[in-house]
Amino acid sequence: MSGLDFSRISDGSTSDSATEPRRIFSALPAKDRKYNYPRDVQSEVWERWHERRTERDLVIKLNTGSGKTVVGLIALKSCLNEGIGPVAYITPDKPLTGQVMREARGLGLDVTEDPESGRFLQGRQILITNVYTLFNGRSRFGVRGGRRQPIQMGAVLIDDAHACLNTVDGQYTITIPRRHAAYDPIFELFSTDLSLQSEMAHLKLKNADPSAVLPIPFWAWDEKQTQVVKLLSPHTEDDDLGFSWPLLADVLPLCRAAVSGEAIQIAPPCPPIDAIPSFARAKRRLYLTATLSDDSVLVTHFGADPESIGRPVTPRSASDIGDRMILTPLQTFPQCDEDWIRGFVAEKATTRNVVVIVPSTQRAKVWESVAHGVHRSDTLQAALEELRRRHVGLVVLVNKYDGIDLPDGACHLLVLDGLPEALGALDQLELRALENSDALLARQVQRIEQGMGRGVRSNDDFCVVLLLGRNLTARLHPTAAREKFSPATKAQLDLSDQVAEMLRDRPVEDLEAVVDQCLNRDPDWVRASRDALDGLVYPETGEITPFARAQRGAFELAVTARFSEAADRALDAVNEVEDPQLRSVLKQEAAAYTQHFDPVKAQELQGSAFSQNRGLIRPRHQIQYKRLPSPASSQSQAAARYVADRYASPGDLLVGVAALREQLTPDSDPARVPGFEQGMLELALHLGLAGQRPERDIGRGPDVLWGLGNQSYLVIECKSGSEQDEIAKTDMAQLSHAIDWFDEAYSEAGDAVPLMVHPSRQLESRASARPGARILTFDKLRELLKAVDSLATAVANFEPFLDAKAIEERLTGLGLNAPALVDRWTLKPRKRR
After folding, report:
1. Could you tell me the pTM of the whole model?
2. Residue 630 domain flag
3. 174: Cβ–Cβ under 8 A, 6 or more apart, which residues?
4. SS3 breakdown of the chain: % helix, strand, coil, rounded to 5?
5. Are residues 669 and 696 in the same domain?
6. Cβ(375)–Cβ(383) under 8 Å?
7. Torsion angle of alpha carbons 397, 398, 401, 403, nearest 10°?
8. Is residue 347 predicted with pLDDT exceeding 80?
9. Which domain holds residue 815?
């Protein structure tokens, strides 16, 4: 007895012939039972994508947990059925490649991880691989000018596109560690140019100080390009350069370069995507993203068409996201400190998995005593697998805000502790250029939102998110920050604000009961959470900034040696950009392109840019130093005016001063040193004093200069990263040089006290102090900041808010008035007996 051959009455499988994604999904013959029906949001997105599928660049936006992976896989299958192949699904990293492979096999799709698979190359199989495989100088897809013939791709899908950005940046950056044979010759080649940017930072670089970072001026980079190539060419096959050199060799003259005590970095303004023809020439390019509001990076980093990207493919509803209670306990309970919160979190970890994301190794140290483990990239995956498998307790992840899944019991309490930081030399220079700008705020919000999404991976998942760190909470407090979140996150933040308001004036111990209401699925909380999301819709247009359009457009022109047009493209956009710091950055980029055809005009442009933003490259001509002006009002009046200009309310003042206190916490992490120096400047302004950062602004002088009034000054050198119990001879020499600069700049116009911020007042045996020198030890700094905190609390409760007479009384009573500062808060240095 035999069965019938039903293939004889079928014209072919719908799953292999249809192009409509929903039909393909429904017809897949071997899919797992859990894929019986597509979700509504998936069907809506498929329909909208299918209508526009012929557009070369399309972004698909879905909330986390909405089934993005299935959406992307079926879209690629549709492309194959249409004859648009080969196709590739690109993930942020190797572990996520494994997850997508499992999902694809559950759907019964024919997939491979091998870019050389015959079925993939024939357009009969979906390739699933990670972004490292595609974008690198030895890419198995082929590199322009390389030996391997590039694969002619039909469609390439970039999953979690925002999470892939750091990888793409890294692959298009040449990093030369200090140990590398090319570091010292390149440093010597540009030594004079670096010294003219900052004598003190140049000296620190010579001494391998990890906190020092300087840009190589674009005119020096242009003039010495032949020597640079000669120095690098013997090393282009090294592991340090081999994966990036082939991508950048053709655009090396257009690159920016920076030197730190740890490495030299070289990178272009935008990644030259054409170096990977398989991506650059693909017929269709799809970008899967979460609902982050700014898609400009898809234009700058992937060369995507801004018009298509500006019209994202989305479902009708934006409410398909899991439940998050987002709390800022240090803001809700001002009387509470971080130690109490850490203890509370550690106690919760005895019964649930808790994940803490920190920006740096230094920040991770405060959690070590209560953590099951602290994990970086090398141990990350094993830690994540263990969290998904069983109860572990408290786990700390260093600088991992994206590309990880912590579903269900893997993480029901997520802590983001501290503001994401810039780590590389070029990143730190960008941070200086954009300090306190709207553009930097948008990037930080995006990073924070990515981090907050790690603990909720489906629409029925739930998680409590605690935001710690005064800088982080202060950064998110303004309305401008709130507007940069996605609709769903913004709604959850608004709901959490209501929770915080209900908790205000209640004991901090009530925090546990409220957290438990979310974790234990209190029906009233669940209902309130769902109601907050009800009716949310996605914006019809995505945000593509004029800056992003101009930056990518100018770079594309420069790549083809149309430097005059490139400069004009950047300058034309200056008036379209609202953020003054971004305008100055565009001017600097225009100056760099102008250098290639008119070096004199390039210096004029750079001088204009630098006059607007002292975080940029100093122009070739010497910058004229401008003395601190004599105070036009009393210290208390100046303090009242500064606070009124900066803070909208007493609550904002308290949040801002708390953030300043954290900014002025000594930290050995080199990336935090510039922030500390900026904090010292802002401390002066909060106290009604004048302040400058001469070393940053003109490349000479002290880290910070305070004007106390009556022609009295503090010349300040900051050693906030020091962990030494004695002051080194070289440190005192720096302070001595700073006083020499002051004497020359101010002549008979003022008297200065040399002041060093350092852990200790003790001089090493070879060190000697200038007459009158003082030390602000870390202990004394903490006492000073407590007094500033008391001042802020008092001012916040004044009626009226900013009463100058009352401020004057508090300044005097707390020892914060200018005449008392030196004697009250600083110590004389002393030699060991």
Report:
1. 0.87
2. no
3. 232, 241, 244, 245, 248, 265, 266, 267
4. 50, 15, 35
5. yes
6. yes
7. -70
8. yes
9. 635-831
What is the sign of the dihedral through the CA atoms of 468, 474, 479 and 481?
Answer: negative
Burial class (CB in 10 A: 0-12, 13-18, 19+), 145: exposed
Would you tell me how many other CB atoms lie within 10 Å of the CB of residue 616? 21
Instruction: Give the pLDDT confidence of 310-323 residue by residue, as tens digits.
Output: 999 999 888 878 89
Task: Work out the number of other CB atoms within 10 angstroms of the CB of residue 72.
Answer: 27
Q: What is the DSSP string of 64-132?
A: TTS-HHHHHHHHHHHHHHTT---EEEEESSHHHHHHHHHHHHHTT--EES-TT-HHHHTTSSEEEEEHH
Amino acid letter, residue 808: E
Query: How far, in Å, CA of 575 to CA of 583, rounded?
Result: 8
Is the pLDDT at 748 greater than 80, yes or no? no
User: Each residue of 294-305: pLDDT tens digit?
Assistant: 789 999 999 999
261 and 350 housed in the same domain: no
φ/ψ of 581, rounded to 5, equals -70, -35
Task: Flag whether pLDDT at 293 surpasses 70.
Answer: no
Mean pLDDT, residues 554-580 taken together: 96
What are the CA-CA distances from residue 486 to residues 464, 533, 547 (Å)? 18, 12, 21
618 within some domain: no
User: Is the same domain home to 59 and 183?
Assistant: no
For residues 394 and 432, the answer to whether their CB atoms sit within 8 Å is no
Dihedral angle computed from the Cα positions of residues 439, 441, 443 and 447, in that order, rounded to the nearest 10 degrees? 180
Backbone φ and ψ for 464, nearest 5 degrees, come out as -95, 130
The mean pLDDT value of the chain amounts to 91
pLDDT band at 334 (very low <50, low <70, confident <90, very high): confident
